[in-house]
Amino acid sequence: MTEVSEISTICKNCLFAIYDDDTQVSCKFGRTETVNNHPSYDLIEAEDEEKKFYILNNHICPYQRTDTWTHADEKDIESKVKEEVYMPWAAVLFYRHNGVDSVEERIKELKSQKIPPKVVSLVIDAQDIDPKDFRSLHQMMEDNFSLWYLQRVLMEDFPDRYTADLCFDKMKKHRFMFYSYFESTKPIDLEYYSKIHKYVIDDMNFYGMIKNNDDKKDIHQMTISKVAHIKYAGNGNGIPIEFKIAYETKEITKEQISSNNITFDNLTSKFIIDYKLL
Questions:
Q1: Tens digits of per-residue pLDDT, 159-190?
Q2: Which domains, from first to last, does the chain contain?
């Protein structure tokens, strides 16, 4: 008999549980089927004097709502709960001195996401910048975001990852679940947020990092879990966070890291997800 975890969801009184008489047969969001086929979760059949129902073992369902929910008596409660279930996120945009118009385009793409980023940091590197352009970038941020930072890098050739770590230190006080890097020179996928939402929320997958595995040094649209960043201290001590994740999951050894036998090209980990698979 499977032991019920403290981290579980009892479907009995959920507004989205589908019943045949007094026996639960499914879920309006397909959560029971997804859990039943998931390698880390269990679907447990349970019953009491009133009903036969499911327990989503080892999983907290974000869609669970009961009749005490504020919107319980409204007509379209499925749409209403979808509005409540989302992943707040943050963005770090690197300006590559390719014209302030490029930043304006990237801002439009960020704001066109199904859920726009909650906080945005615009990074300007150590190259000289026309004061007029600087003022334009400042105004763009002020006009488009309520939570934003304008970061100026003073040291030439300072690695982007270390810059992003410093941005994270500024942003971490805000509530978000992941943050992403973007280049001003490259367009942002307008389905970017939606793909991550589906992968994590709807399909219940785990991730530490999501990146472009076709070019593993490419940081554009690279995504890092806030929890993973805090746990591994980002790219601190000169070790990329991917290596730390792979070491934690025993997919590489400390000796391989210290001897530089591991590169981005041969690094693999079940928690480093290829963006094109989303």
A1: 999 999 999 999 999 999 999 999 999 999 99
A2: 1-61 (no CATH), 89-277 (3.90.550.10)
Question: pLDDT (tens digit, 9 = 90+) per residue, 186-208?
Answer: 999 999 999 999 999 999 999 99
- Residue 215 backbone class (left: φ over 0; alpha: ψ -120 to 50; beta: rest): beta
How far, CA to CA in Å, does 197 sit from each of 117, 201, 234?
Answer: 13, 5, 22
Q: What is the pTM of this model?
A: 0.91
Residue 115 near residue 180, CB atoms below 8 Å: no
By the 10 Å C-beta count (0-12 exposed, 13-18 middle, 19+ buried), 176 is classed as middle
- Tokens representing 105 are 């385009």
Contact at 8 Å (CB) between 16 and 85?
A: no
Strands 42-47 and 52-57: antiparallel
Give me the amino acid identity at 117: P
